[in-house]
Amino acid sequence: MDRETKRLIEEFRRNEAGPLENNVIDEFIEGELDRQDFLRRATMFGLGAGTIFVNYDGVNKHHTVVEDGAFVGCDTSLIAPVTVGAGAYTAAGSAIAEDVPPGSLGITRATQRNVEGWVERKRPGTKSARAAAAAAERTASRDGSANAGEDGGTQA
Question: Is the pLDDT of residue 134 over 80?
Fold first, then answer.
């Protein structure tokens, strides 16, 4: 394998030169693809930063296919076996575990839920707990409610 080809493979591995199906590099290295086909297949779709091809279940490797003209949003996990159809999109931050039909938008998002007081209860004594307590004190002082309780204690 010549020096330029090795350089291209390393660029593609880092997804700097373009996105890839998760098996394109292996097929190229094993001689199943020639250089032209490798380059063609490697640049047919868009892949957002932080995209993860989740293809190993601990026993077997599974394939993910991203078809022509598809776009995978940033921070998306593609949980194999799965296909993102031609011209389909996935929304940023999604965990795609089912096929996305051609021309469709695949999106998986749960509604954000904030669990108030979690750090104080579950991580007492940590730097995070101290920072949260200090922020609560600042908020209470700004609101003029530092002594809001009947017993004269401060709120946290």
Answer: yes
Exposure string over 101-121, b if 16+ CB within 10 A, otherwise e: eeeeebeeeeeeeeeeeebbe
| Among 81, 21, 91, CA closest to 54 | 81
For residue 124, is the peptide bond before it cis, meaning its omega torsion is within 30 degrees of 0?
no
pTM above 0.90, yes or no: no
Domain spans of the chain? 1-43, 45-111, 114-145
CB 55 within 8 A of CB 69: no
Pick the CATH number of 45-111 from 2.160.10.10, 3.30.70.120, 3.90.226.10, 3.40.190.10: 2.160.10.10
Q: pLDDT by residue (tens digit) across 16-70?
A: 434 444 455 555 555 555 555 555 555 556 777 788 888 888 888 888 888 888 8
